[in-house]
Amino acid sequence: MKNAELNQRRQDATPRGVGVMCGFYAERAENATLWDVEGKEVIDFASGIAVLNTGHRHPKVIAAIEKQLQAFTHTAYQIVPYESYVSLAERINQRAPIAGPCKTAFFTTGAEAVENAVKIARAYTGRPGLITFGGGFHGRTYMTMALTGKVAPYKLGFGPFPGSVFHGQYPNALYGVTTEDAMNSLDRLFKADIDPKQVAAIVLEPVQGEGGFNVAPAEFMQALRTLCDQHGILLIADEVQTGFARTGKLFAMEHYSVKPDLITMAKSLAGGMPLSAVAGRAEVMDAPAPGGLGGTYAGNPLAVAAAHAVLDVIEEEQLCQRAQRLGQHLVEVLQQARKTSPTIADVRAQGSMVAVEFNDPATGKPSADITRQVQQKAMEEGLLLLSCGVNGNVIRFLYPLTIPDDQFTKAMGILSRALAH
Ligand code: PMP
């Protein structure tokens, strides 16, 4: 009964605003398996919200952190620098899909990376305006709440938000929003709300994460790049959720023929340690004056050590290829279920960023209820699934890319039964 007791203590000791999804408490974890305080075993398809592409406690990540623990845990990089920060920047600069010379700065959270990308873009362009998209999610700080394109629960009661932020439409085939519609929505912003010459950046997720795993069409990304070039606007790709092999490439922007000016990254960058980064064109990254960027914990040495190991593991275990293979397998399972389940409205994927969307067959409307039932059914058999989507009617799959084949197969069985139910 430890979980029940802990739940009571949690309710008494912590605010309801920190919403908690599961009623059980973690005791330990290994790769794709979690055990709770009552010994219950769970297959983890949440990965701490897309943080564990290399799994819980990957031995190489643990070893790297332990080695760093023996050396030093903190100096504040801006006071006493260390080589591992510089070499991690060098590795990311080599791999990030950025045109020309690239530089990288490290921070701690995803929201902080986005905040800093905005600071850098404004410093470089000397302009205030920011354009993002409906359904987008960029964080819980003030600027990133303003950028986020979903009101409940993220913005409820928290306004006013920073100004000069405008939302366009993100293409969504299922809801009939074409690339042309999306580009027209930006044109309307330029007519009704802001002169394009006052816009510093367009910020988008190449695959919307919290918004429902909506993949940006290639022609949309191209049109955005052209628009940005026409008006001197920077294109910022928020890869906090899509990065580090999840979509079958190290960065999702590698699926496109055009390149962004800045990329934000976090989550799976450091395999469970808090680390984020902004990578971008050197000239743009150098716009803020010395001292303008940083933070006491930004680029923490333990997290940086973990990130080096994560990059090694992604390469050694060919996790990009594995993401493609596992994603294909999962899509087949979902397509098979779709044949007999009238509730499945859509199945979509970019690599292992896979989603299934549920409608109520009686009304044809998005159904958060059916989505919850599938989640609950899977949980009864020990499979932890996350939902997402503006209507809460999408299940997203975020298993560690290192998950053993037999465990993945077992999870597919549980999922099929939950969908059939
Ligand atoms: N951007 C995107 C695309 C995200 O998915 C998230 C987190 N879900 C964030 C930013 C914010 O990251 P963090 O919670 O680490 O601040």
Automatic annotation (TrEMBL):
Protein name per the record: 4-aminobutyrate--2-oxoglutarate transaminase
SUPFAM superfamilies registered for this protein in UniProt: PLP-dependent transferases
PANTHER family (alphabetical): AMINOTRANSFERASE CLASS III, LEUCINE_METHIONINE RACEMASE
Keywords: Aminotransferase, Pyridoxal phosphate, Transferase
EC number(s) stated in the UniProt entry for this protein: 2.6.1.19
Molecular functions (GO terms): 4-aminobutyrate:2-oxoglutarate transaminase activity
The UniProt record lists the keyword Transferase: yes
Family: Belongs to the class-III pyridoxal-phosphate-dependent aminotransferase family.
Organism of provenance: Serratia surfactantfaciens
Highest taxon above the source species: Bacteria
